[in-house]
Write a structure and sequence with these properties.
about 90 residues, alpha+beta, 4-stranded antiparallel beta sheet
């Protein structure tokens, strides 16, 4: 939710793609826009929303990636481990 909010609020994007992938040991959510991208200064500021997403992933043993999109814009990837059910 926070990532899509950032696209609307900051990216000046015309399109956003949301991809969900389920693998045997992890769940991956990617949000990619075609906007202006994230400036290094914005990364350094560490806005609360970005910091909170990163912290939440850390809390569950997952990964948070913030980087450039395939063509331009921004890609956020959240990777969450899936643990097998307890016996």
């Amino acid at each position: 939710k926070e990532s899509v909010n950032n696209v609307v609020k900051h990216a000046k994007a015309t399109a956003v793609k949301v991809r969900v992938r389920l693998e045997s040991n992890r769940f991956i959510l990617e949000i990619e826009d075609d906007g202006r991208g994230v400036a290094e200064a914005d990364k350094a500021k560490g806005r609360n929303g970005l910091r909170n997403m990163s912290k939440r992933m850390e809390d569950v043993g997952g990964e948070f990636l913030l980087g450039p999109g395939a063509e331009r814009g921004t890609l956020i990837r959240l990777t969450v481990p899936i643990r097998p059910p307890a016996a």
